[in-house]
Fold this protein.
Amino acid sequence: MIFRKKVRYVMVEASENVSLGDSVKQEMLKSGMKAFLGELPFFKANPQVAAQLSDRVFVVSVNRGYERNIALALSFVKELDGRRMGFYTIRTSGTIRSIKDAFGELY
């Protein structure tokens, strides 16, 4: 029997322009979340940048059940690449398609 990995997608808006296509900046964001969460909860959540929707909005995929932890950790990340910025969770969904549809409606 094959089990599917269940993930949730979290749409996040930054207060400044951020380009997470660069793997170095993704690692900086992950290390900021890891500093708040700790090693084990971060490992269980497994946050990954799934898409960059605009210069300020991006999508993070996270294991189901840990989306609230990631939203909280993102709110405590105050600096990325030497620039002060804040991260705000806009929406959480089970599919990236519905996140993109919501992005189209909101922005």
In short: Residues 7-106 form a domain with the Alpha-Beta Plaits fold (CATH 3.30.70.3250). The chain has one domain: 7-106. The CA atoms of residues 37 and 69 lie 8 Å apart. The chain has a mean pLDDT of 94.
